[in-house]
Design brief:
Helix content is 6%, strand content 41%. It has four domains: 7-155, OB fold (Dihydrolipoamide Acetyltransferase, E2P) (Beta Barrel), CATH 2.40.50; 163-272, OB fold (Dihydrolipoamide Acetyltransferase, E2P) (Beta Barrel); 276-353, OB fold (Dihydrolipoamide Acetyltransferase, E2P) (Beta Barrel); 359-445, Nucleic acid-binding proteins (OB fold (Dihydrolipoamide Acetyltransferase, E2P), Beta Barrel). 39% of the residues are buried. The chain starts with 6 loop residues before the first helix and ends with a strand. It is mainly β.
């Protein structure tokens, strides 16, 4: 049973909530002022009243998905460190922290600090505080369990997909509005594509300098990350990690405007960064690779196709996660084989949205005579429906009299001899090209 709540404290908190417009989300709690300090009324609110009673009304309760397990980053024997993210929106995260220095009776972990795994949904009740440029819930550096956070595991939805940070220049500066900059991405699961290590040691508890064309940043490897058998990335790579801030403050008045860093959560969250979709074909099966800002051209059961926005090339992605034609996606996954071709088995998918434009082709292009590689791309082709070959496959004579295969994927196809326009993914290869329909509107009769 918590201690008595004072009437005065309740009146104070009610007024504070009126001023804060009843802020109640992780994003709201993370709001900062020009100094980088939390602005929500409950940040640093007192835990006790004048009678040393706990002011429960100054506590908050938050829920989110754990981005790493209890011993994935730091040893639970040294600290209880939990990063959560609001999986119901595209904004908001928070760290929950308690130090072993203040655990009761010489170091046992209190039962109210529930063990957790990455992907668990947790509910946390505790007091908000400022810490090195971010708002978090902590133990207020005491062994009084009545004011220490209470953590409950209430489900396991799994890890969210990360948010793509466009470049290092988008995240390595302070912006109190959080339209961009480090405050926007703080304590969230994020992805950065096409960076290189320029300085530092590839080892636990080390900070490396990373860079892209836009600037530099920091990648921190916590003590418990398993690096066994994983070498330092050579060349450009993509990394999925927790975005964090540990700024001890500087200047007069003191501000917390920097020392943003990426926490490597798992060595398996690093992949070779590829520039274009067709580069997947040059990688070995089993290699982990990533592509960024590619357009979904067509969606099929258990898979979809993406292509470069300039239509340089395309590739198949193996995944049942929901995407829509026109989505712009960044994908990390492993190279695999699908129908004799290299494809990408997705581990993480980051989505935004534009439209994919088909490339006009003829039979010479599809059979490799034009010197263009269009496989994996959304294409448009004019031709005549031929005979059924069974299994939804039809012969298709293009307007230059090349005979290829049309895969209807179960959609209705006009009668044999009908001239049509087909918008489809070019699959297969130059020796056996296949046009693969993705919806009923992908084939239309040509009025002659």
């Amino acid at each position: 049973m918590r201690r008595t709540i004072s009437i005065v404290a309740l009146i104070f908190v009610c007024c504070a909530f009126a001023l804060s417009a009843s802020a109640a989300t992780l994003w709201d709690y993370q709001a900062v002022n020009a100094y980088g300090l939390g602005t929500h009324p409950l940040v640093n609110a007192p835990a006790y009243n004048s009678n040393e009673d706990v002011i429960e009304a100054n506590m908050v309760t938050v829920e989110g998905v754990a981005l790493a397990g209890m011993d994935d980053l730091w040893s639970s024997g040294a600290m209880y460190a939990l990063f959560i993210q609001d999986e119901t929106s595209d904004r908001g995260g928070m760290e929950i922290w308690a130090g072993s220095f203040w655990w009761p009776l010489g170091g046992w972990i209190p039962e109210q600090y529930a063990p957790f795994n990455a992907g668990d949904r947790v509910r946390v009740t505790g007091f908000l505080a400022d810490h090195n440029g971010k708002v978090f819930i902590n133990d207020r550096h005491t062994n009084d369990l009545e004011i220490c956070p209470v953590v409950e595991v209430i489900g396991h939805p799994g890890l969210p997909d990360p948010e793509l940070i466009p470049s290092l220049s988008n995240c390595n500066y302070f912006d109190k509005t959080r339209n961009d900059g480090g405050e926007r991405y703080q304590t969230r699961f994020t992805m950065l594509h096409g960076v290189q290590i320029t300085a530092g040691t590839w080892a636990n508890n080390e900070t490396l300098t990373i860079a892209d064309e836009s600037g530099v940043g920091s990648l921190y490897i916590p003590p418990m990350v398993n690096l066994s058998g994983v070498s330092q990335p050579a060349g450009k790579f993509s990394v999925v990690r927790i975005y964090d801030q540990e700024d001890g403050g500087s200047g007069s008045p003191v501000v917390y405007h920097g020392v943003y860093r990426m926490l490597l959560r798992n060595a398996g969250d690093i992949a070779i960064a590829l520039d274009v979709c067709r580069d997947v074909r040059d990688r070995a099966v089993g290699e982990q690779v990533a592509v960024a800002r590619k357009v979904v051209s067509r969606v099929y059961e258990g898979r979809f196709f993406i292509q470069d926005s300039d239509r340089t090339g395309g590739v198949e992605v193996i995944s049942s996660r929901p995407v829509t034609v026109g989505d712009v996606v960044s994908i990390m996954g492993t190279v695999t084989e699908s129908n004799g071709q290299k494809a990408l088995n997705a581990k993480y998918i980051v989505k935004s949205r534009i439209s994919a434009a088909p490339l006009l082709v003829n039979g010479r292009t599809l059979t490799g005579q034009a010197g263009l590689d269009v496989f994996g791309l959304l294409v448009r082709c004019v031709g005549t429906i031929g005979t059924s070959q069974g299994g939804g496959l039809y012969s298709f004579t293009t307007d230059d009299n090349s005979i290829i295969t049309l895969n209807s994927n179960g959609y209705a196809v006009p009668a044999t001899g009908t001239m049509v326009t087909v918008t489809a993914v070019a699959s297969g290869n130059a020796s056996a090209p296949v046009l693969m329909l993705g919806n009923a509107k992908d084939i239309a009769s040509v009025v002659q």
